[in-house]
Design brief:
By secondary structure, the protein is an all-alpha fold. The chain contains four helices and no strands. The longest helix has 25 residues.
Length: 134
């Protein structure tokens, strides 16, 4: 006589719909990027420039500090915070380099990206993947 485990009922989750929605939203951005590439000006003057950068740096400080504190306590919440912080660091490096003036300002932005922001992003990504680099 063979024993067969009973089938367990599982609740249907909205994951397939959410996955389809997110995939579609990502795909929809592709033609939008073409529109932006053809229509946006190469230069522009912006308001609240310093507020935007200070806000980003404040989020980075909170993310890095919070990740470090949670990691030191072996708290599993370090992983999602590290993932978000890694994304912010890559974004910061991208915008630092692409918005810097040619010459020494761009060289400084590239050096900061290569020596600080991207290595920190890699460390945060390792924490997020639960493979600490330390």
């Amino acid at each position: 006589m063979t024993l067969v485990a009973p089938r367990l009922r599982t609740r249907r989750t909205p994951r397939p719909r959410l996955a389809t929605l997110l995939t579609g939203a990502g795909a929809a951005l592709l033609p939008w990027m073409v529109v932006l590439a053809k229509t946006l000006p190469q230069t522009t003057e912006v308001s609240n420039w310093s507020t935007a950068w200070i806000g980003l740096d404040a989020m980075l400080a909170a993310g890095l500090s919070g990740t470090g504190l949670l990691l030191g306590r072996h708290d599993p919440r370090a992983a999602p915070l590290a993932a978000a912080t890694a994304a912010l660091l890559v974004m910061d490096a991208w915008f630092d380099v692409t918005t810097s003036a040619p010459g020494s300002a761009r060289a400084a932005a590239v050096a900061l990206a290569a020596c600080a922001e991207l290595p920190l992003a890699a460390a945060c990504a390792a924490v997020a993947a639960r493979r600490p680099v330390f």
